[in-house]
Amino acid sequence: MPQTGDLILHHYDEAPFAEKVRLVFGIKDLAWHSVIQPAALPKPDLIPLTGGYRRTPVLQIGADIFCDTQLIIAEIERLYPLPSVFPDGNPGLALALGSWAHGPYVVTSVALYMGAADPFAGDINLPSHFFEDRKKMWMTQFDTEQLKAKLPGYRTRLRAHTDFLNQQLADGRAFLTGDRPGLVDLHALWNPWFLRRFAPADARWAYDPYPQIAAWEARLDRIGHGTRQEMAPAQALDIARQSIPLPACGVSPDDPLAIDAGTPVVVTPSDYAQVPVTGTLVGTTVQSVSIRREDPRVGEVVVHFPKIGYEIVRS
Ligand SMILES: N[C@@H](CCC(=O)N[C@@H](CS)C(=O)NCC(=O)O)C(=O)O
Q: Which residue's alpha carbon is nearest to atom 11 within ligand 1?
């Protein structure tokens, strides 16, 4: 039976951003509930929780909904600090590296996949409208129709990004920041994990020359995902409905946002999948923003977003 405070991850198995969180569960040896959501729109069992945010993964704890791996991983680290995802004691650097990972690094591999002659070359289970869905979703980063001529540029940049990994692994260390795995590894794993599944030929080209990368990937793979238990989407929605969101942390009067608690606001990703989410501002921290929403299926929920990568304006 699920308990109050249980970790419920909305994801799908092929999602590389979700793999980051699954590996955090593995590093911390946590038990969690897995709710499989569609890989492409529509997502009728996710949107009642998020109010429109469609990206994967989303973490649910009762009626609190955490969007974006930046915030999801920070929240898991706060709740379960040991073993830390900052094993070398550099949390600020590891978190800041998210802006590299979620920006130029990820976009490079996604462009290679989207621009491939056969974008379904991998042996993965995706809906038939996946590619069309992603074309629209990535429109703010690149025009898929124009990608072919740009692939050499993306390839040469991928090699430059990969060189960062090789520089870290050059002294024979097991993980990127030392002998224990952490968030920096999870940021860097994104591209090889994604390309090996979605564009195997590009992955072979990119990583076969570097056996140290394959050995590092295998070490990360051995961490596993903690203890996963499947949950039906309807059960997760019922849990949200039966739960009360945790008390809001309030809005600091010196937050440069200068929006009072109780004000209707809209929060929108600023990079891609720019679907606005409307709610009432109930809290901000230096890193996050929280809004309360009502939904006929799940009742009152509080949705939490990181500030970095999101636009917050009065509605
Ligand atoms: N910045 C977000 C990015 C998440 C993201 O782009 N996830 C991909 C899947 S791995 C996605 O949402 N694709 C569209 C979808 O699942 O609907 C995060 O860190 O969570």
A: 55
pLDDT tens string 212-271: 999 999 999 999 999 999 999 999 999 999 999 999 889 988 999 999 999 999 999 999
The atom number, within ligand 1, closest to the CA of 15 reads 10
pLDDT of residue 290: 98
Cα-Cα-Cα-Cα torsion 98, 102, 105, 106, nearest 10 degrees, comes to 150
Mutate to test the pocket of ligand 1, among 12, 14, 17 (most ligand atoms within 8 A of CB): 17
Q: Which of 101, 84, 75 is nearest to 180 (CA)?
A: 84
Give one word for 273, left, alpha or beta, with left for phi > 0 and alpha for psi -120 to 50: left
Q: Is the CB of 37 under 6 A from ligand 1?
A: no
Atom of ligand 1 nearest to the CA of 55: 12
Element (H, E) at 54: none
Look at residue 121 and tell me whether its pLDDT is greater than 90.
no
Cβ(10) – ligand 1 distance below 6 Å = no
- Determine the atom of ligand 1 nearest the C-alpha atom of 98: 19
CB of 33 closer than 6 A to ligand 1? no
Q: What is the dihedral of CA 22, 24, 26, 28, to 10 degrees?
A: -150
What CATH number is given for 8-83+228-314 in this structure? 3.40.30.110
What is the distance in A from the centroid of ligand 1 to the CA of 172? 32
In the chain, what are the domain boundaries? 8-83+228-314, 91-223
Q: How far does the centroid of ligand 1 lie from the alpha carbon of residue 72, in Å? A: 12
Architecture of domain 91-223: Up-down Bundle (1.20)
**Distance separating alpha carbons of residues 56 and 203, to the nearest angstrom:** 22
Handedness of CA 92, 94, 98, 100 (dihedral sign): positive
User: Residue 148: which region, alpha, beta or left (left: phi > 0; alpha: psi -120 to 50)?
Assistant: alpha
